[in-house]
Write a structure and sequence with these properties.
With about 475 residues, the protein is α+β, with helices and mostly antiparallel strands. It is built from 14 helices and 19 strands. It folds into two domains: about 110 residues, 2-Layer Sandwich (Uridine Diphospho-n-acetylenolpyruvylglucosamine Reductase, domain 3); about 220 residues, Alpha-Beta Plaits, CATH 3.30.70. Helices cover about 30% and strands about 25% of the residues.
């Protein structure tokens, strides 16, 4: 019974990457207010166009050009800095553009329209014994949105999403549809992928899949100072380790000192005994537990203790790759009048993890930041887009923060975030761009040395700046 209770409370701990999914917008003529999942930047848009077929998307682009309106592209709107809309713009909502176009079991490839979600893909390929190579730890996002931010996940061998993208088609500002891959329109491949919707509408995507596998979950608790050595020896150096995540305490009694790690190791067994795709359950109780952690320090301490105890008890359990990559999300749906949950993500070199944590703890000990969770993942060095966050082996720290909606609260969070970003940059790290534009322009250019090239190419491919969003306005 106790284990079941702990399971209920901690079921969502596989996810802290994003908050809940907003309702999909519908067709409308004009003057709608729109925001993203953060609820921090509501603005009036000219029109929301429901993309259902290529011609309707093209027509919306033509009409925007005729009326000299800006165009933004939206999926589930989990980017938190106005990346998916702009004031008085035409917003193309891609969530209904979600068909599976082609599937090749032998080649392990699938082609989908960009509004398809990872859930759509998993449901389609699971009966064939196949799985996604790279995705976030939730499956509710659109493929086009994930490509636009070059998402990463738990697989320590595959890196970020770019490594699994074979090709995509891009509708450009001048109305052309281009095939984009590593050979054809190569430059656009590395600009639009991780390009935050600024180079055109990603119409459909061909992805490389992999075999579904059976893993054994192994969990250990350790001191943060031992994490780098543990990872290099027990995870990176062990060919049986395929997926990995860690968490470091945000509880006041053990702030940024205690950790637990969960590794997913190749296991013997029959895949069909475990490959029924799991569903979300008992969301209400889990939401309540997270709510207590938002409001009370004792709630944070209790939540951390329950997390560790639960994962110690599931040590040795078997799980398929598809199920390991399906995170709970409904428990993160949070409706409040005065506050919201937001994310920050920082990347730091593997060998510098402990020193970085010491300096980050100093900042957090001085500040009043309602920090709910930090998940740690690994991103390896690989080919990257122009706005690449992974030029070496890095740990990615995903911070879930509760903050107020008022201007004063936003300014406070902005100030603290800038301090944390400075610490990250001083340790040779970087930060992720899909969230609130709290970092300064100077910080962006320190973290992304090719930013000038990115914005220059944006003007070359889209001289009228037809595609835009608040991220581009802030940093161009």
């Amino acid at each position: 019974m106790k284990k079941d209770l702990i399971l209920i409370i901690c079921i969502g701990l596989y996810v802290t990457i994003f908050a809940y999914s907003l309702h999909n917008p519908t067709n409308s003529s004009s003057n709608q207010y729109m925001t993203d999942v953060s609820k921090l930047m509501p603005v009036k848009v000219e029109r929301i166009v429901k993309g259902s077929e290529i011609e309707s998307i093209r027509q919306a682009l033509r009409e925007a050009e005729e009326k000299d309106l800006k165009v933004s592209i939206a999926g589930k709107r989990h980017s938190m800095g106005g990346h998916t809309y702009y004031h008085d713009s035409v917003v193309i909502d891609m969530t209904g553009f979600n068909d599976i176009l082609d599937f090749d079991k032998k080649k392990k490839t699938i082609k989908v329209q960009s509004g398809a979600t990872w859930e759509d893909i998993q449901q389609y390929i699971n009966p064939y014994g196949l799985a996604v190579q790279v995705m976030q730890s939730q499956n509710i996002f659109t493929v086009g949105g994930s490509i636009s931010v070059n998402a990463h996940g738990r697989d320590i061998r595959k890196g970020s999403l770019i490594s699994t993208v074979r090709s995509f088609r891009l509708l450009t500002a001048d109305g052309r549809i281009l095939n984009v891959n590593r050979d054809e329109n190569r430059e656009l491949f590395y600009l639009a992928l991780g390009g935050y919707g600024l180079f055109g509408v990603i119409l459909d995507v061909e992805l490389q899949l992999t075999e579904d596998e059976l893993y054994e979950m192994r969990t250990e608790t350790l001191d943060y100072k031992d994490y780098s050595a543990y990872f290099k020896t027990e995870v990176q150096g062990n060919p049986d380790a395929q997926l990995h995540l860690a968490r470091i305490s945000t509880a006041p009694d053990s702030l940024l000192t205690e950790m637990y790690v969960t590794d997913y190791m190749h296991a013997n067994g029959t895949l069909s005994d475990h490959n029924t795709l799991k569903k979300e359950q008992l969301t209400g109780i889990t939401k309540f537990a997270l709510g207590v952690a938002r409001d009370f320090d004792w709630g944070k301490n209790s939540f951390w203790s329950l997390q560790k105890e639960y994962f110690e008890q599931v040590d040795g359990d078997l799980i398929t790759r598809n199920n390991a990559m399906r995170g709970e999300s409904k428990f993160l749906e949070y409706e409040a009048e005065n506050d919201t949950d937001v994310l920050q993500e920082y990347f730091v070199p593997v060998d510098g993890f402990a020193d970085y944590i010491d300096d980050l703890r100093d900042v957090l000990s001085e500040e009043d930041l309602n920090l709910l969770n930090i998940t740690v993942r690994y991103v390896n060095h690989e080919e990257g887009p122009v706005l690449s966050y992974s030029d070496e082996e890095l740990f990615a720290l995903v911070l879930l923060i509760n903050q107020g909606l008022s201007e004063q609260e936003q300014k406070k969070t902005e100030r603290i975030v800038r301090k944390m970003v400075d610490v990250t940059l001083d340790h040779g790290g970087s930060y992720y761009l899909p969230y609130m534009s709290y970092p300064t322009r100077e910080q962006l250019h320190r973290a992304y040395p090719r930013a000038d090239e990115f914005f220059s190419k944006k003007l070359e491919y889209d001289p009228e700046e037809r595609f835009t969003n608040f991220f581009y306005e802030e940093y161009k």
